[in-house]
Amino acid sequence: MKRYETLHDRLHEWYRRHGRHDLPWRRTRDPYRIYLSEIMLQQTRVETVLERYWGPFLERFPTLSSVAAATEGEVLKAWEGLGYYNRARYLHRTARLCDGALPRSAAELEKLPGIGRSTAHAIACFAFDEPLPILDANVRRILHRFFALDEATPSRLWEAAGELFDAGRPYDYNQAMMDLGAMVCTPKAPECSACPLREGCAGREDPQRYPRPRKRPGIPVRKRQILVLRRGDALGLVRNEGRFLGGMWSFPQRIEAPRSGRKIGKVRRTYSHFRIEGSVWEVKELPDEKLRFFTPAECESLAMSALDRDVLKLVKKEMQ
DNA sequence: CATCCGTGGAC
DNA sequence: TGTCCAAGGAT
Q1: Residue A226 and residue A130 share a domain
Q2: Which bases on strand C have an atom closer than 7 Å to a protein beta carbon?
Q3: CA/C1' separation A147–B9 (Å)
Q4: Are residues A202 and A234 in the same domain?
Q5: Which nucleotides of strand B lie under 7 Å from a protein CB?
């Protein structure tokens, strides 16, 4: 596509000068590390991954084989605090499916659990130089503005992504677009005057108009009773099944308050689509529950959600 | 196509 | 405090 040659040149020059070249996953071609970064960064801020997860996780799991050799629980533990824990379970499944090495094409990568089209393209491009565009939140916002799209289907956005794509320098193009979206073409106050694509941008007169903001339904509040059963120094926990916090250990929850027990505090937490307001009770008995008992020290090696970590903190205060 | 799936920072 | 949102994918 000759049409965007000048804009591509400006984009690359902007990226050379302002890009985040020090990001650790840009300083490696190790497919596993690139893959891990793409999974960690799904719906997660760069700063969070950079500061709290990248180093510790790689120290514990330096290779794809080391992930495959671990239990799911161990991988979840290393993922603790990052959220969207299905990512960690898919990572574990993928590691076991791959037997040491990731496939080298986007088509094969996309067949693996937890890897969709955009992530497959990202890994294939960044690790194996396959010339394919990505379509993350940054690129999507740029495309909405560049082509003045109020709203667009995924199909239309992929088409737009392919149109603006620079197949001649796929690695730098994709990285540059993500940086541009994160640093210049931002959601709230885009700096169009600093944008290397401004001359071709159909939306630059009113960038805030694109994309049209999605109506967010209010999230419901779920009131829950959180039950703490002690057996000596040990606490009764259950392992979540299903997709919500699947594989993570939690204090049991009920809708109804216990008939007897002592209230020791409150916790609240907002998830992606609901909020929990929990009353924490110390109870003496808890029928019909598949409990396993762990001391607070043993809990440190279990994968627990942020809410259950808050509950555990309350309980430890009570036990002193 | 709509809904589900966490967390914490910015404002 | 409430709201938005950040390198998406599975169902």
Answers
A1: no
A2: 3-10
A3: 30
A4: no
A5: 1, 3-9
Owning domain of residue A310: 221-319
Catalytic residue among A38, A74, A130, A282: A38
Q: Nearest CA to the C1' of B7 belongs to which residue?
A: A83
DSSP characters for chain A?
-GGGHHHHHHHHHHHHHHS-TT-GGGS---HHHHHHHHHHTTTS-HHHIIIIIHHHHHHH--SHHHHHHS-HHHHHHHHTTS--THHHHHHHHHHHHHTTS--SSHHHHTTSTT--HHHHHHHHHHHH--------HHHHHHHHHHTT-SS--HHHHHHHHHHH--TTSHHHHHHHHHHHHHHTS-SSS--GGG-TTGGG-TTTTSGGGSSPPPP-PPPPEEEEEEEEEEETTEEEEEE--SSTTTT-EE--EESSPPSS-EEEEEEEEE-SS-EEEEEEEEES---S---EEE-HHHHTTS-B-HHHHHHHHHHHHHH-
A121 touches strand C (CB under 7 A): no
CATH number at residue A138: 1.10.340.30
pLDDT by residue, tens only, chain A of 320 residues: 578 999 999 999 999 999 999 999 999 999 999 999 999 999 999 999 999 999 999 999 999 999 999 999 999 999 999 999 999 999 999 999 998 999 999 999 999 999 999 999 999 999 999 999 999 999 999 999 999 998 899 999 999 999 999 999 999 999 999 999 999 999 988 999 999 999 999 999 999 889 888 777 788 999 999 999 999 999 999 999 999 999 999 999 999 999 999 999 999 999 999 999 999 999 999 987 889 999 999 999 999 999 999 999 999 998 87
Strand C contact with A266 (CB < 7 A): no
Q: Within a domain: residue A285?
A: yes
A199 is catalytic: no
Contact, A250 CB vs strand B, < 7 Å: no
> Which residue's CA is nearest to the C1' of nucleotide B4?
A273
Gap from A285 CA to C6 C1', in Å? 42
